[in-house]
Each structure stands twice: as structure tokens, then as C-alpha cells.
């Protein structure tokens, strides 16, 4: 799939969050409308640069990124790039957050009616895994930037924390340290995604990964298998 298919909202939100409401454009003849058009143009250009950065990361990795390379890939001038990003690190941070928002939007959409923290976490892991199976280029970009973008790691931790805490309150999760539990879930999921990308298809990979993550969080083996085997929201039973 093309990266442009995954344009996420500009407002960050988590697996248990809510999207910000869109503002209503002003009327055609007001000064506010001119400002809105300017903001929209800036947003489109920034998205164009983010998409170009995603393609570079997926194709060549972080090491090959330079701001002039980004300008060439996006089809804009070097000066345009510097209007938005002053360094490669700023681009990494922005792309990392963009990827986190895109994934969290999908997970929020499919799991918003689920109350169980363990089930929500299983849905999240399986959604990540299915994304890796269907879009390896996108996944390579995600795996590349998450190692470097502190903002993305923080965003993913924020999205995950509420589900871990819910699972613990509900008696499903038993872990000694919350931050380590979050790191374990993220690392295990990304590692499993990388396995799919590098080594090819693994039958029922999404369910296997979710089952193993749930067990690592203290869910008994049979219950973890049951939860991981539940149909995803929208799937037939």
C-alpha cells in the first residue's frame, strides 16, 4: 500500500483516547478563511515531507537521510524543508509521532466498545501484526524510527498504559513494574512484526504474538489463548 493511504489526524490520541473535533472553516470572504487556507497549505506541505521521509526510511534507513535528500524526495526546495525541520532528528521525531497516531487511530476504532484491558491489548497487538503482514514497507519505517524517536516511544507508552492498568484492576494482569511491562509489550510486538517482515508468513502470527504477550503479563495460558483467539471487532466469529 502507498504511504499516502495512512495519513493520520494532526491531533495525537491514544488507544483509549478520543480524536479532537475538526474546526469549521470560516466563510469565503472573511480574513479568518484566508488564514485557514494558509494553515491548510502548511499542513499539506508538512504531510508531503513526512510521506517523503517515510519512503526514505523504508527504502534506505535512517543513515541515508539528509535534509537535501528529503527535499529531492518530496519535490520541494531545500528552503521549504528548513521552514519545517531544522535537523534530521526533528524529522525522525515528527515521523515517529505520525506513525504512532496512525496506528493508534486504527486500534481505537476497532476496540472502542471493548471494556476488558486484556482484550484491548490483544486487539492492539494483533492489529500491529496484521499491519506488518499487509504492509511490510510501512512496518520497516516504523521499526526504523522507533529506535530513534523518543516522542514515539513516549506516545506508544501513553497509549498502552491505560490498557495495562485496566487489565491489572480487572485481575487479568500481574506484573511487578509498570514501565518494564510497557517496554516489554512494545519490544515484543515490534520484534514479532520484524520477524514477519524479514522471514515471511507465519500462520496465525497475530494470535500467537498476542497470546505470548498476555502470558508474559500474567494471564494464565488457556485464558491467554482464548482471548487471543477471539474474533477481532468486525470479523466473523
From TrEMBL:
Which residue ranges does the record assign to the HTH tetR-type domain? 43-103
What SUPFAM superfamilies has UniProt attached to this entry?
A: Homeodomain-like, Tetracyclin repressor-like, C-terminal domain
Provide the residue span(s) of the region labelled Disordered.
Answer: 1-43
DNA-binding region per Swiss-Prot/TrEMBL record: 66-85
Q: Which UniProt keywords apply?
A: DNA-binding
**Record keyword DNA-binding present:** yes
**Record InterPro entries:** Homeodomain-like_sf (IPR009057), HTH-type_Tx_Regulator (IPR050624), HTH_TetR (IPR001647), Tet_transcr_reg_TetR-rel_C_sf (IPR036271), TetR_C_40 (IPR049513)
Q: Where is the composition biased (Polar residues)?
A: 21-36
Gene3D superfamilies per the UniProt record, alphabetical? Tetracycline Repressor, domain 2
Q: Which Pfam families match?
A: TetR_C_40, TetR_N
This protein's name: TetR/AcrR family transcriptional regulator
From which organism does this entry originate? Alloalcanivorax gelatiniphagus
Amino acid at each position: 500500500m502507498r504511504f499516502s493511504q495512512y495519513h493520520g489526524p494532526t491531533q495525537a490520541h491514544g488507544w483509549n483516547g478520543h480524536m479532537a473535533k475538526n474546526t469549521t472553516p470560516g466563510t469565503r470572504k472573511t480574513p479568518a478563511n484566508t488564514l485557514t487556507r494558509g494553515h491548510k497549505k502548511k499542513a499539506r506541505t508538512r504531510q508531503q515531507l513526512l510521506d517523503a521521509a517515510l519512503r526514505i526510511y523504508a527504502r534506505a534507513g535512517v543513515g541515508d537521510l539528509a535534509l537535501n535528500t528529503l527535499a529531492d524526495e518530496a519535490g520541494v526546495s531545500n528552503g521549504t524543508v528548513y521552514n519545517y525541520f531544522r535537523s534530521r532528528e526533528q524529522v525522525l521525531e515528527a515521523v515517529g509521532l505520525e506513525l504512532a497516531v496512525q496506528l493508534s487511530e486504527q486500534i481505537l476504532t476497532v476496540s472502542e466498545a471493548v471494556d476488558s484491558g486484556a482484550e484491548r491489548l490483544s486487539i492492539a497487538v494483533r492489529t500491529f501484526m496484521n499491519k506488518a503482514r499487509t504492509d511490510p514497507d510501512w512496518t520497516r519505517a516504523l521499526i526504523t524510527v522507533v529506535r530513534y524517536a523518543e516522542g514515539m516511544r513516549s506516545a506508544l507508552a501513553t497509549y498502552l498504559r491505560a490498557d495495562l492498568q485496566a487489565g491489572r484492576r480487572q485481575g487479568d494482569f500481574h506484573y511487578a513494574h509498570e514501565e518494564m511491562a510497557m517496554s516489554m509489550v512494545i519490544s515484543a510486538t515490534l520484534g514479532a512484526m520484524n520477524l514477519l517482515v524479514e522471514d515471511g508468513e507465519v500462520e496465525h502470527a497475530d494470535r500467537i504474538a498476542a497470546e505470548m504477550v498476555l502470558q508474559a503479563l500474567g494471564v494464565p495460558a488457556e485464558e491467554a489463548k482464548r482471548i487471543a483467539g477471539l474474533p477481532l471487532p468486525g470479523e466473523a466469529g
